[in-house]
Amino acid sequence: MTLRIVRLGTPRAPDEGLRLGTVRRPPRGVPKAEFASGNWYDVWYPNLAPSAELVKAALAAGTDAEWAAFAKAFRAEMAVPEAARSLELLAAFSHRTNFSLGCYCADETRCHRSILRALLAEKGAAMENSPG
How many whole angstroms separate alpha carbon 68 and alpha carbon 97? Predict the structure, then answer.
């Protein structure tokens, strides 16, 4: 069993399982009926997406210091009880079933999913190692 961190809209891995979209907004121009078949996501789960304010900060982060500030603020958002419980639940599920979560960003190193990867690892999730 494993949890994968993926780029939404990319081909699914064999046995990837359910794909969760941890994004603030659904994909533009894609009918809802095509979210799963287009490899976007099976379930929209914005609970683990940055707030609208932080999305803007992440997109504007041009320096390592700005990215670090975003990462610190996003970690703080993920520390609130609702988000922390979601992370704990997903970490537990990762030991029982295959699933994935992701975002649209092309570069995981400048995407909130890199922080989710670290947070889930800190919670003991069974994870695929390669960045998605």
Answer: 32
